[in-house]
Specification:
- The protein is an alpha/beta fold and about 325 residues long.
- The chain is built from 15 helices and seven strands.
- It has a seven-stranded mixed sheet, with helices on both faces.
- The longest helix has 15 residues.
Length: about 325
């Protein structure tokens, strides 16, 4: 794949029509403000700008390369587009600095982007040899190489267990610490080799042995879960009454965070046994989907990256106290 490949061929937005359907009631009014908190190459945003001719977009991304591609793709929409280089937990600052008091809709399409996966030199894929980078923001300092070189065995075990849900976390951490005494880890193929050699053959038959370790390293490099814990409440706080939030998650750790926040804010906080629910105890949100919605077989066939998606959505029904 070459760098001049058109953006619309690089990435097929996941569940695009469903996202539009869920957010549309909040974005119909002229001048409605929509935040694409994970802009990527602008696939979702382009569709929203086309469908809603008076919509204003605030697009956030931590990846300068993605912002450049999206900026070119969305340039035809002129001053309706505002792009901001920030991690998505910076949503409140980004919105306020642009002069908006509140927003009408927000979309999170979580996880590693197609751009990052498809650029071999970014080091996100265990199937292709590359430098051990894994930064979503190339201007940040921490890389997977640094983690593998400096983290203690206990810390490596912790991130493999907590962020990769890896049952062999202790074994992998021990082997990595042993191996780095001989040769530092600088390429993804080195790491894959050590993990594969440490994995029982029976376990290897269940899937690529490096998958969960690479996920864990990526999450640690980019602090994805900590950022998400802050970002979802911040996005809800920025929503106007009647505004809507849609979140697409691709692994269970992310989805649990989203589920917990949405459920808490869509549940009454009134003490048990209170005869009358006071206004300040009423839920802030109304869930628009029962549980998490999955991609159907047609979507999965057309876009394999939709296979693990878990979509959740809610509408803000009152301001927080």
């Amino acid at each position: 794949m070459t760098d001049n490949t058109p953006a619309d061929r690089l990435h097929t937005p996941v569940l695009l029509e469903r996202c539009v359907e869920l957010l549309a009631p909040a974005l119909q009014a002229p001048g409605a403000v929509f935040v694409d908190a994970t802009l990527g190459m602008g696939g979702h945003s382009e569709a929203f700008l086309e469908r809603f001719p008076e919509l204003v977009l605030v697009g956030l991304d931590r990846d300068p390369e993605a912002l450049a591609i999206a900026g070119e793709r969305l340039g035809r929409f002129g001053d309706r587009v505002h792009l901001v280089h920030t991690v998505y937990d910076g949503i409140a600052d980004a919105v306020h600095e642009l002069g908006f008091d509140e927003i009408d809709g927000v979309l999170f399409d979580l996880g590693v982007s197609s751009l990052q996966l498809d650029r071999v030199d970014r080091g996100f894929s265990y199937s292709k040899d590359a430098p051990l980078d894994m930064r979503m923001d190339s201007t940040s300092e921490l890389t997977a190489e640094t983690i593998l070189a400096t983290y203690s065995e206990a810390d490596l075990r912790r991130i493999f267990r907590d962020y990769g849900e890896e049952k062999l976390a202790q074994r992998y951490a021990h082997r990595i610490v042993e191996a780095r005494q001989e040769h530092p880890f600088v390429r993804s193929a080195q790491l894959v080799d050590v993990i594969t050699q440490a994995t029982p053959v029976a376990v290897q038959r269940q899937g690529h042995p490096a998958k969960r370790v690479f996920q864990a390293l990526r999450i640690e490099v980019n602090q994805e879960l900590a950022v998400l814990e802050r970002a979802i409440p911040a996005a809800i706080d920025a929503l106007a009454v009647g505004g809507r939030i849609v979140v697409e998650a691709y692994q269970s750790l992310e989805d649990r965070i989203v589920k917990r926040v949405l459920q808490a804010k869509s549940t009454s906080s009134a003490p048990a046994g209170l005869p009358v629910e006071l206004p300040e105890h009423r839920p802030e949100l109304k869930l628009l989907i029962r549980g998490a919605e999955l991609a159907d077989d047609d979507e999965k066939a057309a876009n394999p990256r939709a296979t693990p998606v878990r979509l959740r959505a809610a509408e803000r029904v009152r301001r927080g106290s």
